[in-house]
Amino acid sequence: MLRDLNCNVLNHNDAASQALLIFCSAEMINRPTRITETSTTLIDVILASNTDLVKEARVLPCSNHDLVYLVLNLKKDRPKPVYITTRSFKDYDQAAFRKDINAGPRSVIDIFDEVDDKLYAFHRIFDDLLDSYAPTKEVKIRGRSNPCVTEEIRALMKTRDQWRKLARKTNDPLAWGGYKNFKREVKRELRLAEHEYAETLIRNNPNNTGCVWKTIRSFIPKKSVNHMRKAFDNISHKILLHKLQDMGASTSAMDWFRSYQWNRTQVVRINAKISDPLQLASGVPQGSILEPMLFGIHVNDLPSTPRNCLTESYVDNTKL
């Protein structure tokens, strides 16, 4: 408790101040807080019920009543660790795994008529076998610093934060202007650093498609992912089948893709009410393993279509 009392705690003959210390709490300030030409008193006090939390008590001279404050010894709770499930390929034997997967019970898959059921059966067989060669395990995620943030960018961030602190304290238009300028500078330098970092990773891993796509996804905003989902919904079934045929797909493969895409319906459910089925004329089943491949086939020839300009493609965006 911080109070400006009307009794001098330094006066041991003052009954009120002594009673306060005896029956209430421990006084943390032990030096005068109000010094005048005629008196020296301690009337600005800090009473603490738990002195173990007090690291230091200080007095800051500033006016007729000096400022009193405490430095507390508080412990911040550590955040709980985050764990993810991954596979351990420490003892993985690729040759043995390929041999077992080729000798697997594929006849089980042929029992089912529906494509989704066949795919589910294949996943179960594949995952069960993979578990024996590369078992799953929990891994603790450790925090990582942003590799794109250089010492120069950190210095800019520090200056930006100083301007922001000054602007919020003074509300000076010049301070706000300085903060906005450094904010734009930090944003610009970060974009350049991210661009250079991504280019370096892709250039150094030309044959590692996993690394390339991981790098690309790390720089795609979430709203772009939602935009990509809309692009998946707009794929024409007829155009996709024509493109598969142009790529040399066999007759049996064409029949399979036609049955996979054709006669799919969707309904809308609100509480207990379900709408009439609506046949889908476009889109690929979201969440399926074929979704990204079919989308890639659909847009693969897009850069070669324009005749009077150049194209630059990046994921689902094309610039003319």
Could you walk me through the main structural features you see in this protein, from its secondary elements to its overall organization?
By secondary structure, this protein is an alpha+beta fold. The chain folds into 4 domains: 15-72, no CATH class; 83-140, no CATH class; 151-219, no CATH class; 234-318, no CATH class. It is built from 11 helices and 15 strands. It has helices at 15-23, 94-102, 107-110, 115-133, 151-170, 173-204, 209-218, 222-233, 237-246, 251-261, 291-299; strands spanning 2-4, 26-27, 34-35, 40-41, 44-48, 54-60, 67-72, 82-87, 136-141, 265-266, 269-270, 273-274, 278-279, 312-314, 317-319. Strand 11 (269-270) and strand 12 form a beta hairpin. Helix 5 (151-170) packs antiparallel against helix 6 (173-204) and helix 9 (237-246) runs antiparallel to helix 10. The longest helix has 32 residues, at 173-204. It is elongated. The model has no long low-confidence stretch (mean pLDDT 79). Residues 137-320 form the Reverse transcriptase domain. It comes from Stylophora pistillata (Smooth cauliflower coral). It holds the Pfam family RVT_1. This is Putative RNA-directed DNA polymerase from transposon BS. InterPro entries: RT_dom (IPR000477).
Short summary:
The protein has 320 residues and is α+β, with helices and mostly antiparallel strands. The protein contains eleven helices and 15 strands.
Provide tags for this entry.
alpha+beta; elongated; 3-stranded antiparallel β-sheet; 4 domains; 45% helix; 15 strands
* Count of helix runs: 11
- First-residue to last-residue Cα separation: 68 Å
Shape: elongated
Structural class designation: alpha+beta
> Radius of gyration, Cα only, in angstroms?
35 Å
Extract low-pLDDT stretches: none
- Approximately what portion of the residues adopt beta-strand conformation? 15-25%
Biggest sheet overview: 3 strands, antiparallel
The average pLDDT score comes to 79
How many strands? Answer: 15
Give the % helix. 40-55%
The succession of helices and strands, N to C, reads EHEEEEEEEHHHEHHHHHHEEEEHEE
Strand order of the largest sheet: 1-5-2
Number of domains: 4
Protein name: Putative RNA-directed DNA polymerase from transposon BS
InterPro entries: RT_dom (IPR000477)
GO molecular function: RNA-directed DNA polymerase activity
Keywords: Nucleotidyltransferase, RNA-directed DNA polymerase, Transferase
